[in-house]
């Protein structure tokens, strides 16, 4: 059948509506959404701190404070926007897609503004400008990312298809990472130093590419699952919060994701200083970015069959364990060259790539579980709570990253950092992620309850509940 009738939340045919069958077009469209997101997200997480410290000459500790404050604000913005989205009716273009179209333009403009450098201004001016533009960008990011993330649960209700959406979303992020992490060091640094003119040029290039990706996401994606307004359970914030308390899978995936993101962003921040100062080769970051993307692409075709055989929880736990071993090994090998370090690190990247590929499928599972325990379908609110946790993780990572670099004794005025500083940076880039990833592993194995068997049962139970409610 070339066209499928529109689906409501029961997965049955809805009257008077025809919607294209779920397929590769949806996967590609959803991939473009995160590709657009991550052009600036990865640029910011990997290179904004070094721009602030080496171009604006803001102290790392103050940058850490900025990241902490801004991300805590963003976390509130995420939940606020999620509740707002859930209060809106679905239009002819869907409930979530129109917001991606409307808000992507101001988001990209604000992203470029973050990297504007006006020569000759005081450090106080640069600090104030950084606070205003970074917080503005983060707020606008919520207006695009919340509807984008929520949209996965209404593109399809099938758990396997949702896993493929998660995989393609991760591919979009990986492609952005490939361009930013490989091309970024080549564009942004001149003679191993951050260059203001090259940073703004890079921001404009990445901004144009980001906008093109958002438009592709809007054009190619289709929302299929619609809860008719007359049949929606009318909940209030109190009911929603009570439901969150019953949703143990949500609670533990929030905690695990928050901690993982702290690790991922901390490593991204520290790696710039690790390769620029410890190894004396900032451009080697391009190779790190390339290998990270290659390992994820290698893992991609393995995800669907492995999840089908073992389950999401089981697969990601094994991958994390591999990454833990690699980071611990790197800590005990301080005399490796940059090339040797990257070669060993590649194995760890392959390990944690499975978590990155599957995490968004975890989120759709906990959205379903929320409906199971509350009877309320609140995709935007649940996703925004997950995004809230991620923003808290980003806040913690940004603060810790800045404070950790500062505590290592990093001094931007030095051409060569002290041995104590370099050793501290090496520890931040190896032992610390090993410990953090171990904590994520323990949470998934012992506390997150949705293994393969329980996830399959959840899908079956939801289908039955929806049929009875009709």
Automatic annotation (TrEMBL):
Task: Fetch the Pfam families from UniProt.
Answer: MFS_2 (PF13347)
| Transmembrane helix listed as a keyword | yes
Report whether Transmembrane helix shows up as a keyword of the record.
yes
Keywords linked to the UniProt accession: Membrane, Transmembrane, Transmembrane helix
Instruction: Extract the CDD domains matched here.
Output: MFS_MelB_like
Locate the transmembrane regions by residue number: 30-52, 99-118, 124-144, 171-190, 196-217, 250-272, 284-303, 315-334, 340-363, 430-450
Superkingdom field = Bacteria
Xref: InterPro entries: MFS_2 (IPR039672), MFS_trans_sf (IPR036259), Na/Gal_symport (IPR001927)
Would you tell me the protein name for this molecule?
MFS transporter
